[in-house]
Design a protein that fits this description.
This protein is α/β, with parallel strands linked by helices and about 375 residues long. The chain has twelve helices and 17 strands. The chain is globular.
Length: about 375
């Protein structure tokens, strides 16, 4: 796929929706079988681009046809999504993906058939439109529930309000779902690096200890698997202001995979990783090798389960985990047979993670690529 053109106005996005509808109408007028062309969004059409160091979507496409019994329901649902998005844009409104689902849900006249049986049917169709029209969900004025937090010397303009992330108290600034430049303007930032922390509880320790103030950084949490907003904001800070990102995750296959999503993107969002991935990110911890290095008591380790072992095997085969440092770390995890949570560092001392562990890792450039 080519480089996505910058979309900055609702009018631009509306035109894409109208053009899609007009294309279907023209097919019907010609007596053709109406069809929508969509990129194939599965592992067989995803590759790791070594030049950009991000996960990309390939060029394979498929057609969703109206006169195909296997496609007709999804064809109808796809047109409903496009139509409802067009209404949202026309009203200059912003709605949640949950709102969108309910706005489209109805019983089809003359039948007992529901247009959507659940939100799990509508959400993937939004992603289909994103991929097909080179848009982001945020361009379509659709948002998800925000969950990320940030603290540090950062001032942004959100609508008419100036937000100062140094003055957001113990909870930090709640990162909104849409952080595109036309919605969130970065007015000022003074930080040497971003510390991306997997868990809110651990982020809270760093915020309470004023780590961002003492170490001139920004601290961000995704509270688990990162949403688009956190990834996009961090990418903007890196691209627009040259601020590097260090990621602090659990020493388990799931935390390490979350890091890889931040760094080079995810398979499911491969069509949009040019605006989400942050390939210069580095992994600051936690690692299995830290147990010996920092003399962490073995009592706080957790035995690997079958799901963990299966995930390790899967990750070792991914192109983006082929670097020898990652292969060695994953092999060590399997050999030792345990994983480790960031909270385990509290066994050493409550503030060990903020006063010793992270500062020492940064000082020694002790990162995984």
């Amino acid at each position: 796929m080519g480089k996505r053109p910058e979309i900055t106005t609702d009018k631009d996005v509306q035109k894409k929706m109208v053009d899609t509808g007009q294309n279907i109408a023209n097919q019907i007028k010609r007596g053709d079988n109406p069809a929508i062309t969509l990129p194939v969004r599965n592992l067989n059409n995803v590759y790791f681009d070594k030049e950009s160091k991000t996960i990309k979507l390939g060029d394979k496409t498929s057609q969703r046809q109206f006169l195909n019994i296997a496609h007709v329901r999804k064809f109808m649902q796809t047109t409903l999504v496009a139509n409802e998005v067009n209404k949202v844009l026309a009203e200059k409104a912003t709605v949640s993906i949950r709102d969108l689902y309910y706005a489209m849900k109805h019983t089809i006249p003359g039948t007992q058939e529901e247009s959507f049986s659940g939100q799990e049917e509508s959400d993937p169709l939004i992603e289909d439109l994103e991929a097909a029209l080179d848009l982001l969900r945020e361009n379509m004025n659709l948002i998800a529930t925000p969950k990320g937090r940030i603290a540090g010397n950062l001032q942004v303009k959100d609508g008419k309000d100036i937000i100062d992330a140094t003055k957001m108290g113990s909870s930090g600034w709640a990162i909104p779902s849409n952080v595109e430049p036309e919605k969130i303007e970065i007015k000022n930032v003074d930080a040497e690096y971003i510390l991306f922390i997997e868990k809110f509880a651990v982020w809270n320790r760093f915020n309470e200890d004023a780590f961002w103030k003492k170490n001139k950084c920004l601290i961000v949490t995704s509270n688990g698997q990162p949403a688009r907003a956190e990834r996009r904001l961090v990418q903007r800070l890196q691209v627009e202001h040259g601020i590097p990102t260090y990621c602090l995750m659990d020493a388990d296959p799931w935390g390490m995979y979350i890091y890889s999503v931040i760094k080079q993107g995810s398979i499911s969002l491969s069509y949009s990783e040019d605006r989400l991935a942050n390939p210069t990110s580095k992994y600051i911890g936690l690692t299995i090798s830290d147990v010996e290095k920092f003399k962490i008591p073995k009592e706080v380790t957790i035995k690997l389960n079958q799901g963990d072992l299966a995930r390790i095997k899967q990750m070792k085969d991914y192109e983006w985990f082929k670097k020898k440092e990652w292969q060695q770390e994953l092999d060590l995890m399997k050999e030792k047979g345990f994983k480790l949570e960031l909270e385990a560092l509290s066994r050493k001392r409550i503030r060990f993670i903020t006063e010793e562990y992270v500062p020492q890792k940064i000082k020694n450039n002790d990162f995984l690529p």
